[in-house]
Amino acid sequence: MKPLLSSMVLAIFFLTANAGRAAEVSLELPAALQQALRDNPEIKAKRHSLGIAQGRAEQAGLLFQNNPRFSVETESQTSGRSGTSVELNLLQELEIGGQRGYRSTAAQKNLTQTQLSIEDAERLLQLEVTRTFYNLMALQQSIADLKEVFAAQQNLLQIGEKRFAREDITILELNTLRLDQEQVRNELASKLRERVAVENELRRLLSLQEGGTLIVSGNLQEISAKKRGALPDRQNLQACALARRVDLQAAKLAVEVREAELRLAQARRIPNISVGPRYKRDDNQNVVGGEIAIPLPFFNRNQDEIMTALANQNISKTELEGRTLAVKQQIDSTYTRLLLANETLRAYGNAYLGDLEKMLGLTRKAYESGEMTIFEFSVTRDRFTQARARSLGAALAYVQTMAELETQASGCLQ
Fold it and tell me: Is 165 exposed, middle or buried (0-12, 13-18, 19+ CB in 10 A)?
């Protein structure tokens, strides 16, 4: 059943290959990153949260947090005298103890923190897009390599069938060629299915609705060769990242926001006063005065808000410590993995793939001339295919690890 399914996948692919080329969409990494930042729905939703912080900052900047209270009182005489007294009161609550300053500070820092959180979300999105982009690039190259191997296997099988008809080879050797071709067919079908999944993931990140097959531009070996170079010292890289990472800056601002909120809560232990003018008309007499209302903090001294603000401050400090430690560990781990990936890539050298193709061509000629048995050629061909896949995997590991380090230490690798 699996060979049949693989054959159907390949048949559909090859039949639609020419028609699909007209609908191919070529994509470069910078364009992909720009589109993701512009159209990704999660980033769009994150940016809307900025409006909440802006509203809070605008509200905190008002001179008075509460509207004035206006009241009218009327009294009618119950005795034989006629007349009605009217009293007008206007009261405005005034914040004391520096509350307005603490509130404004907390709101402004919260606004900056929200902006930094959006920048951090954009940073992580760009890393995810870059990883997926390179994965799709690796699959494209792997599929292209497997197509070449599959075409070569078809040609060898045709030659083998002719040699079998002349009784130059046995049925066992012919079946070996058939099994080799079937193995390549299954590998190609598996890569094609994997490519569909990775392409869909890239489309999701970019919020790309247009039809057509995505073809990413670039070559992993060339990209890895361009990116290879001397790395800065590990400790200097960590120090630079700790100073520049937007998520750390946002975490530090969160601590400052919580500190301002704590000071605000402490200032509100003493209730605000209300002041305003008063007017009264009684028995054809006008009385003008003023009123001051002072709540007495005998019982409620804002204990709940103070304890909550203190707990939030401790939480934000703990989160900052955890984030700082996580950044150090991220840089250290990624730096080590990049060194290992660089050593692996260096072992292949720049001319590895070219030498591999030459050796594979010589091996094929040796088989066709009868200097090598089918079994020997089958084993050698499989080793060449695996070696090419390992070389591609080494390049992919290097560029992806470098992308991680560039994201984790943004601006520190120039």
Answer: exposed
Furthest C-alpha separation in the chain: 138
How far apart are the C-alpha atoms of 61 and 270, rounded to whole Å? 21
For 268, counting Cβ atoms within 10 Å of its Cβ (0-12 exposed, 13-18 middle, 19+ buried), the class is buried
Tally the C-alpha atoms within 13 A of residue 291's C-alpha that lie toward its C-beta.
19
Token duo for residue 156: 């060898």
Alpha-carbon gap, residue 316 to 118, rounded angstroms? 18
CB neighbour list of residue 182: distance below 8 Å, 6 or more residues apart: 3
Q: Which residue has the tokens 């007349």?
A: 83
pLDDT at 80 over 60: no
Alpha helices in 349-372 (DSSP H): 352-368
pLDDT tens, 191-224? 999 999 999 999 999 998 877 889 999 999 889 9
Average pLDDT, rounded, for the chain: 87
| Best CA proximity match to 76, nearest among 278, 287, 282 | 282
Interatomic CA distance for residues 104 and 63, integer angstroms: 10
Contact 327, 242 (CB under 8 A): yes
pLDDT at residue 351, as a whole number: 64
- Whole-model pTM: value is 0.83
d(CA 29, CA 406): 15
Q: Are strands 25-27 and 273-282 parallel, antiparallel or unpaired?
A: unpaired
Which tokens is 336 given?
A: 């080590």
